[in-house]
Every structure is written in structure tokens, then in C-alpha cells.
């Protein structure tokens, strides 16, 4: 029994001094979690190209903006709405998700948008027209002796769909 105690003390001795270091290191790692990536929109100076990117930090966003917009050199980010320069990490953290930023190369400056307000569509496609209601009628026969079938289909606001099938069989089949 004494031998087992002495053996356990000898084996535990080298491990014990490292335990407080492991605990403090684990505590440091768990205390400050890495920030999750947030979505941003980046456009070029003339606003002809807009891309969505995800970034955790300002440095990462600068790298991604440069690569996505194929900028030849380093870029500077400004807010698209008013031209405020985003230079510090603290200011970057205050930006909301989905903020539109403009990437400017050396020698370029921010210019206000020609159209007032923010352009919601990212492409130059015309907005899709949504009708209030669309009703279609289909007449068809499944058997030459039948009177016919009618299918009525209604679509409301491009989302909700209702349909009804009316089968009109021959007189002999109705009697049976």
C-alpha cells in the first residue's frame, strides 16, 4: 500500500505544476470568443459592381473587398450613403449587418449617388411584376363519350394557388 502511494505521488508531481497553467489558458480562450463573421455589401466607386462579403474584422473586410472587386492596389472603405471613412476597428464594430460600403483605390474620392435614396436591387433587371390574381381555365376530355372536364386554377399575389377539377361524365355513367 505504501508503495502504491509513493508511486502515485511521483507520477502526479510532474503533472500538478502544469495544471494551473492549463486552467488559466483555457479560461483565457473561453473568456473572449472569436467574433462571428458578419455580412456586408461592397461596391466600387461608380456603383456598377456590388458584392456581398462576410468578415470578422476590418482587415479581413479590406482583403475581401480588394479581391472581390479586383482592385489593383490597397483599398479604403467608406460608407456608401455619406462617404464616412471606416478606418478603425472600433468604428467597424459599430456598423450594422448588411451595411453598404464603397471601396476606393488610391486617388479616388467618394461621390454621392445620382439617384436619391438607396438602390434596393443589386442588379439592373426590372423588378418582377406580381399580379393580384391570375385565373386560368382548362377544358379537356379524358374519354370521347364524356361531356368534358374543366380545371379552374387561381393564383393570388403570385403566392397562393387554388385549383378545382370538375369532371362531367356521360349521361349513362351518371345514372349508374
TrEMBL record:
The keyword Nucleus does not apply. Gene3D superfamilies: 3.10.20.10. Keywords: Apoptosis. PROSITE patterns: CIDE_N. Residues 36-112 form the CIDE-N domain. One of its GO terms (biological process) is regulation of apoptotic process. It comes from the Eukaryota. This is CIDEC protein. It comes from Ceyx cyanopectus. The lineage of its organism: Eukaryota, Metazoa, Chordata, Craniata, Vertebrata.
Amino acid at each position: 500500500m505504501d508503495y502504491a502511494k509513493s508511486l502515485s505521488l511521483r507520477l502526479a508531481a510532474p503533472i500538478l505544476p502544469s495544471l494551473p497553467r492549463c486552467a488559466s489558458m483555457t479560461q483565457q480562450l473561453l473568456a473572449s470568443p472569436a467574433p462571428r463573421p458578419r455580412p456586408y455589401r461592397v461596391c466600387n466607386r461608380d456603383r456598377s459592381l456590388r458584392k456581398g462579403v462576410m468578415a470578422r474584422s476590418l482587415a479581413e473586410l479590406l482583403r475581401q473587398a480588394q479581391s472581390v472587386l479586383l482592385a489593383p492596389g490597397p483599398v479604403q472603405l467608406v460608407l456608401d450613403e455619406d462617404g464616412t471613412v471606416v478606418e478603425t476597428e472600433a468604428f467597424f464594430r459599430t456598423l450594422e449587418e448588411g451595411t453598404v460600403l464603397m471601396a476606393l483605390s488610391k486617388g479616388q474620392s467618394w461621390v454621392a449617388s445620382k439617384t436619391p435614396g438607396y438602390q434596393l436591387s443589386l442588379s439592373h433587371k426590372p423588378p418582377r411584376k406580381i399580379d393580384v390574381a391570375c385565373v386560368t381555365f382548362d377544358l379537356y376530355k379524358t374519354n370521347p363519350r364524356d361531356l368534358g372536364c374543366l380545371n379552374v386554377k387561381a393564383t393570388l399575389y403570385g403566392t397562393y394557388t387554388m385549383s378545382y377539377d370538375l369532371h362531367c361524365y356521360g349521361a349513362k355513367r351518371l345514372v349508374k
